[in-house]
Amino acid sequence: MKIAVHICRLIVGVLFIISGLIKLNDPVGFSFKLEEYFSPAVLDLPFFAPYALALAIFLVILEVVLGVLLLLGYQKKITLWSLLGMIVFFTFLTFYSAYYNKVTDCGCFGDAVKLTPWESFSKDVILLVLILLLIFGEKYVQPLFRAKTSVAITLACILACILFVNQVINHLPAVDFRPYKIGANIPEGMVVPPDAPKAIFEYAWTFKVDGEETTLITNGEYPTVDGEFIGVETEEIQKGYEPPIHDFTIEEDGTDQASEFMAEPKLVMVVAYDLAKSNTRAFTEVKEVTDKALSAGYKVIGVSASNAALSNRFIREFQLDFPFYFTDETTLKTIVRSNPGVLVLERGTILQKVHFNDLEDLTFKN
């Protein structure tokens, strides 16, 4: 039992620290995931949505600190029961997502490791079992250091987490795990290889034969049945290959112009997923840097999920010399964790990407 507890302690502590640090690197992305859970389509808790970012920061720091406390063996009773409460909460969320197919990615490891809903639930069940074993074997969880040393390490951990999260919120994630990272080519990220696995579907065909309904299952071919066709239900039993970038469009009046813009040798793209939620003060500097880009011969566009009326209002108010196009909100949130943010591209390759606090870092070649 003692050895089992030591192994469980190491696994749980390390996993909580790694999971927390990955999300701490991108707390804005985790807050988007929490907003998805709070939406009417999932848990219907919209009153929590305005506090999603604060809650995300609290949860990820708590996750890291609990992992550290477990490894230190300090305040073990509070630590173990806190771990149990957290894993029960996340197990409920992942089960709800998996069973009702509401959220396709729990965000447990941010964008670094993608898990299906059932994989996320299975992972949480395993952690739940390991934490229960730790609670039953609590007497074997002994502290590694004296209390003062453990307190000092814990406080240093909390301070480091606060400083780090402040940095990534006011700039961009230290490590970008998304398909729109600097150096990525967007058109290449949308390509499906010729030998990529195809999706497999199962079809349930229903006919009325001799006055009774009969259902036949096939992989797509229409069955030969001497009866009246009633209907067919389709189920995807195996997913096909999905390219890293599969939802990128730049639309004007319903026409996708992404391929045209991705061919531009010098393109600046101002990204604002929701202009109503944008930092409006940043647009004064956006105006300055985009004017510099235009003078250097760059094509400048804005992309937003906001309606034309709001986009035009921003253009008039800040005297912007570029038009806005429509792009899906989720895609824009994935492209850059800043509202607004600015990208510099060369034939679809992302050369620069900055938060609105770092617009002065942009450089434009003549």
TrEMBL record:
<dbReference type="InterPro" id="IPR009908">
    <property type="entry name" value="Methylamine_util_MauE"/>
</dbReference>
<protein>
    <submittedName>
        <fullName>DoxX family membrane protein</fullName>
    </submittedName>
</protein>
<feature type="transmembrane region" description="Helical">
    <location>
        <begin position="7"/>
        <end position="25"/>
    </location>
</feature>
<dbReference type="GO" id="GO:0016020">
    <property type="term" value="C:membrane"/>
</dbReference>
<dbReference type="Pfam" id="PF07291">
    <property type="entry name" value="MauE"/>
</dbReference>
<dbReference type="GO" id="GO:0030416">
    <property type="term" value="P:methylamine metabolic process"/>
</dbReference>
<feature type="domain" description="Methylamine utilisation protein MauE">
    <location>
        <begin position="1"/>
        <end position="136"/>
    </location>
</feature>
<feature type="transmembrane region" description="Helical">
    <location>
        <begin position="78"/>
        <end position="100"/>
    </location>
</feature>
<feature type="transmembrane region" description="Helical">
    <location>
        <begin position="149"/>
        <end position="169"/>
    </location>
</feature>
<feature type="transmembrane region" description="Helical">
    <location>
        <begin position="120"/>
        <end position="137"/>
    </location>
</feature>
<keyword id="KW-0472">Membrane</keyword>
<feature type="transmembrane region" description="Helical">
    <location>
        <begin position="45"/>
        <end position="71"/>
    </location>
</feature>
<keyword id="KW-0812">Transmembrane</keyword>
<keyword id="KW-1133">Transmembrane helix</keyword>
